[in-house]
Amino acid sequence: MNKKEKILFISDLDGTLLNSKNTLSEYTIETLNNLINKGMVFSYATARSLSSANVVTNGLKLENPVVIYNGTFIVNPNTKEKLFSLYFNQNEIKMVKNILEKYNLFPLVYSNINGVEKVSWVESMENNGIKKYKYSRKGDNRLRPIEKIEQLYQGNIFYFTCIADKKEDLQNIFEYFKEKPEFNCTIQKELYTEEYWCEIMLKKATKGNAILKLKDMLKCDKIVSFGDAINDISMFKISDQSYAVENSTEELKKYASGIIQSNDHNGVAQWLEMNYK
Asked: Which numeric CATH code is attached to 90-202?
């Protein structure tokens, strides 16, 4: 790397920086903290919320803003201040509501209600995926089970997630939203369970768009990124160098500058230790 260039090193979390036990290894924490202390500009870009990401990155000395909810927000991880935000307008919410009701789908709805982040769902309409989501996040203050469908779309909404046992149960809404210029929609198998997740965001809500904004905020010259899944494609496309961990999807590997060791072999930390000057 050119010493005069200020480089933003940014990694996905699940399946990339985190191992298959959904944790950071001691080696990864120690290596990254040492490099950060030496001046490396490091951050992460994740589909997780800040509260969820904070749990799994505990021990990491993060000094820079982070990208959460697949690019919907850029947040200071220490003060929780939102530096960049995207929210659906009422017409967009109505469009999502109508198509989900048409296919009898009841989503997790992520919103800010009276300034407080909440995840809402209709309790009587829970499927296996939502039950697993709920139980895996016991004690999370964002959780807001509700009784009436009318309550589902309250607040300033920024994210929708539909979960199903079979991919084909979500295919219709994916096909619908991927053709709409206002939206960004992804569908993939959940990393830690057997269900499929279809996530509906605004068109500008991508890791790539948010990372470009973060690059400007931090006055960096280049971007080097690390990922494992299809929601990392936009990040790889805007990076000067991009590295897919060995366990990545084949689709993402097509966009990578190179393939590195898997998440269970500390691929990101190893690469940074060898290449950061």
From this structure: 3.30.1240.10
What CATH class has 7-82+208-275? alpha beta
Q: Which residues contact 116 (CB under 8 A, 6 or more apart)?
A: none
* Cα dist from 62 to 153, 192, 213, 238, 277, whole Å: 34, 25, 18, 23, 19
Are residues 196 and 163 in contact, defined by beta-carbon separation less than 8 angstroms? yes
Tens-level pLDDT at each residue, the chain (277 residues):
455 789 999 999 999 999 999 999 999 999 999 999 999 999 999 999 999 999 999 999 999 999 999 999 999 999 999 999 999 999 999 999 999 999 999 999 999 999 999 999 999 999 999 999 998 888 899 999 999 998 999 999 999 999 999 999 999 999 999 999 999 999 988 777 789 999 999 999 999 999 999 999 999 999 999 999 999 999 999 999 999 999 999 999 999 999 999 999 999 999 999 999 7
How many Å is the Cα radius of gyration of the chain?
18
